[in-house]
Amino acid sequence: MDFAEIIAVLAALTGDPVDPEQHFGAVATGGHDASAPVAIKACPQPIGIGEIEGETLICGTVSVPEDHDAPEGRRLELLFTVMKSHSEVPEPDPLLYLHGGPGMGNMNGIAGLAQYFDGWRQTRDVITFDQRAAGLSTGDAACSGVINENIRSVLTLSAGQAEVSACVAELRNSGITLQHYNTLQNARDVPIVIGTLGYDNYNIIGISYGSKLALEVMRSAPEGVRSVVLDGVAPPWLPLYNTLAVPMNDSIVRLVEDCAADKDCASAYPDLGQMLTDTLDAAAEGRLVHGASGTVLGPEVVLDMFAQRADGSRIGNPSITPFMPAMIYEFARMVEDPDVATPTLDRLSNGGWVLPRDRVADLRGAAQVTSGESETLLELAIAQAERVRDTDQELQTTIRALRDALRRERDYTPLAGILDGELSRASGANFADRERVAAFANDVAALISGQRARAPLVGFIAETYEGPTAARLLALVDAMSDAEIASFFESAARSLETTVFKFVTTTDLWIYACQEDVPFNSMEGYQATTAALDYPQLGAIWTSNAGLLLLGVCPMFDQFPRERFQEVVESDIPTLSLGGTWDTQTSFNWAIEATRGLSNAQAFAFPEAGHGAVLYSKCVRDMAVSFTGNPNRRFDPETCQTGVIPPFHIAEWVDQAGSDE
User: Which secondary structure element, helix H or strand E, spans residue 604, and what is its range?
Assistant: First the structure.
C-alpha cells in the first residue's frame, strides 16, 4: 500500500459509515434474485489492512433451498464475500473460489484469500462462499449441544467415539435432512449464489474438495461457466478413501525419479528407491535405532519428511527436497550402525524439517561488490529495507488494532465493549497452559449456552477472578443495562465459535464422506490398494486414519450413494488441471486423470509444489490468472517447470571418488 491508499483506508475506517449500495448496488439491498435473498452482514475478521467493508468487499448470506428438488422447503444461509476488482473497468465474469474439505470453509480467512487471489482481482471480482455444512455456513449442522457439553475434549482435540456418536444423534434430531448435504446439492447452490450476486457468466477455481465440486458443477450445473481451474484434484470417480496412501506413494516415486535423472544425485545415492524400501522394512522390524538416544524408529519416522515437506503452513521456507536423498541414505546407514554420523538428518530434524531463510545473509553472500563505497551503500540499502519491513509490520498491527477498537465501539453498546476489553486483559493468565485454556473455555461455554442474563455473568466473574480485578468487572456488570448484557453475550458467542472450528469442520467432512464417498470405499479396498503400492509400508501412516473413518465413524451415518457420482465427468468447458509433486493429499497424477472426459483441458504436474499448487508458486498462480483471462491459451509443457528443483545436496560422507566413476 502506498501513502495515499493508507490514508484512504484510515479515512474510511474513522469517517462516516460506507454506503454499500453505492459500491455493490442490488447486492446490498437484497440481491438480484428474490428467490435467493441476500442479507448483508459484517465480514469475519481479519479482512486485510487495505480492505474497506462495503467498498472494496462485502459479506453476507445467500438463502438457498436445503433440497433443490423441493425449493419451498427448509432453507440454508450460505455466508459469502465479494471482493471487488481493483480495476475501474473490470471484466464482467468474476472468479469463484470453491474451497476444500469438504467442510473446511474459507470465510474465516478473508485476509489470506485477498492476498492469494490478488492477481485475479486486477481484472475481475473474486467471490467465495462457505458451502453448506462448511465453515461459517455450518448453521444447524454444528451439533452445538454436544460441543458445549464437551468443550474441554473438543478444544484439546481429545473427543472420542462417544462425542462423535452424540454429535451424529444431535444432527439427526435437529430437523435437518443430512442426505441433502452432498456435492450435487452444493453444485446446484453455485449458480444461485452467482446469479443473486448479479453475474451471468463466471470462472471457477476449485482446490482439493473444491476441484471435486467444480467437476460436479461442470456436469450438473454448467450454465454460465466460462473456464475452470482445478488444483489439488480429487476426481469423484476415484475411491478417495481406498487411495489414502496413494498421493504420498506417488510423491516418493517422483523424488526417486528426479534423483535418478540427476547425474550427481544418481551417482551419490544409487538405487534410492530400493534403499528406502529396505530401510522401511528394517524400521518395521525394529532394526532402525538412533544410537545416541537408543530410540527405535518406526517407518512413520522415515516417511515424516514427505508429510512435512508438503505442510502448507511452511510455504515460503527453502525446499528440503535437495536433502531428502541424503536423509534416506542416512536412515539406511543407521540400520547397519546406529552410531553412524547423520549430519543431514541432524540439520533438518533439529529444525523440525524446516530450513530457516535469511534473505539478508543470502544477499550479502551473493553480492558482487568490491569497493568500500559500494559495500557501504549496500549496507545502507539493506538497513533501509529492514526498516521498511518493520514499519510495514507495525502498520498492519496498528490498523488491525484500530479495526478491533472501532468494531468494539460500534458493535457493542459502550459498557459491553469496555467489559469485553477488560475481560480479555484479565483472562491472560488463563492461557498459560493448555489445561487452563480448556478449563476456562469450558466455563465460558457453560456461561454462553445457559441463560444469557446478568446473574449468570455475575456468578462467572465471581468464580473466575479475584480481588480488585473481580471488583472492577462486577462494577461494570452492575452498571450495564439489559441491552448491554445482551450485546456482550452475542459477541461472546461469536468468539466461542472460532475455538471449536476444528471439531466442527471435521464433523462436516464426515457428513459428506460417510454419506456419498464411503459407499464406494471399504477397509478391504484400502488395504488392497495400499498393499499394491511401490511403498506399502505407508500403511504405518494411513491405516489408523482409514480405520477411524471407515470402521469407526461412518457406520454411525446412513449412506446415500448417488447415481453418476462415480462416472467420469465429460465437458468441453476450457479447463486447466494442476497438481504438485509434493502433494500427499491428492496425487499429482490425478490432475491428469481428471481430464479424461474433458475435451478442452490441459494438465500439469509441478515440482516443488504441494496441495494447491497455486498457493506454493507465483509462477503457477500467474499461469492460472493468465488462463482465466484467456481460456483458449495453450501453455508450453515446461511452463513453471524448468530449473525449479534446487541442486541435490551431496553429503560430506559421500565418497566423492566413487561418485565420479
Answer: strand 601-606
